[in-house]
Design a protein that fits this description.
Blueprint: E1 2-7, H1 12-15, E2 21-29, E3 32-36, H2 45-56, E4 61-66, E5 74-75, H3 77-90, E6 95-98, H4 108-120, E7 124-128, E8 145-149, E9 159-161, E10 169-171, E11 179-180, H5 183-186, H6 198-209
Parallel strand pairs: 1-4, 1-6, 2-4, 5-11, 6-7, 7-8, 8-10
Antiparallel strand pairs: 2-3, 9-10
Helix pairs in contact: 3-4
Length: 211
C-alpha cells in the first residue's frame, strides 16, 4: 500500500525509520513556485499524521508532500492545487491523506476536477473538515472521504460513518490550526482526523483477498 501525505512535511528522524519513504516540498517564494526535496517538518503536524498512520498500518510506502512555507505556518492554496495536479499526473497511490481544508470557494472548481480524476483512477482521497464545522474543501467533495471530529469518540481506532451531504466519517481528533494564504478572510484551517480511517480500509482489502 502506498499512502501520500500532503501536510507540513515529516521529520527526518521519523522518515529514516521508514523502509519505503520519499518526500518533496512545494512552496511559493517571491511569486515563484519552488519544488525541492526538503520535506523536513518544522511544525510537527505532518509528522503527527505520519506517526498515526504508522501506528495502525504495517508494510506501507509513505510519500510526503510538504506544502507549508519555511517562514511561517501558511499554506498557499495555489501551491496546494499544484501538488494535487502533480500527484494526479506523476504518482500512483492507494490513499492520499490531507489534513488540510480550504474554505475559500474560488479554488473549488479546479480542486474538484483534480480530485475527481484521482478518484476515477482508484485513489482514495481522505481530507479533514474545518475545525469549526464550516463547509470546506476538498473534504466536502463527493469524490473525497470527508472526516470531522466527534467528542463521542475516545479511541484512535474508532470511527463511525455519517449519512450527511458533506461529512462521511467522524473520528477522534483535536484542533491544530494552520492557515492558508487567504486565512485572514476565510479562516481556512487544518485539523487532525484524516488519518484515522486508513487502518480499516486495509483490513477490508485483506478480507476481499480471502473471499
Amino acid at each position: 500500500m502506498k499512502i501520500i501525505i500532503i501536510d507540513s512535511g515529516v521529520s527526518s528522524e521519523i522518515a529514516r525509520n521508514i523502509d519505503r519513504f520519499s518526500g518533496m516540498c512545494f512552496q511559493r517564494q517571491e511569486e515563484k513556485k519552488i519544488v525541492e526535496h526538503n520535506y523536513e517538518d518544522r511544525i510537527g503536524h505532518g509528522t503527527s499524521i505520519c506517526s498515526t498512520i504508522l501506528s495502525h498500518v504495517d508494510d506501507v510506502e509513505i510519500k510526503a508532500f510538504k506544502v507549508t512555507s519555511e517562514e511561517d505556518e501558511y499554506i498557499d492554496c495555489d501551491v496546494l492545487i499544484s501538488v494535487l495536479d502533480y500527484i494526479e499526473k506523476n504518482e500512483k497511490a492507494d490513499i492520499i491523506n490531507m489534513s488540510i481544508c480550504v474554505c475559500a470557494t474560488k479554488y473549488k472548481k479546479e480542486m474538484y476536477k483534480i480530485c475527481r480524476r484521482l478518484y476515477e483512477k482508484g485513489t482514495l482521497v481522505v481530507a479533514a473538515f474545518d475545525n469549526d464545522g464550516a463547509v470546506s474543501y476538498p473534504a466536502a467533495f463527493d469524490c473525497v472521504i470527508g472526516v470531522t471530529t466527534s467528542a463521542m469518540i475516545g479511541n484512535n481506532k474508532e470511527f463511525f460513518p455519517v449519512n450527511n451531504r458533506y461529512v462521511n466519517v467522524c473520528a477522534k481528533g483535536k484542533a491544530c490550526l494552520l492557515y492558508t494564504s487567504d486565512a485572514a478572510d476565510e479562516e481556512d484551517s487544518v485539523e487532525f482526523g484524516g488519518s484515522r480511517i486508513i487502518e480499516k480500509k486495509k483490513k477490508k482489502k485483506r478480507l476481499s483477498k480471502n473471499t
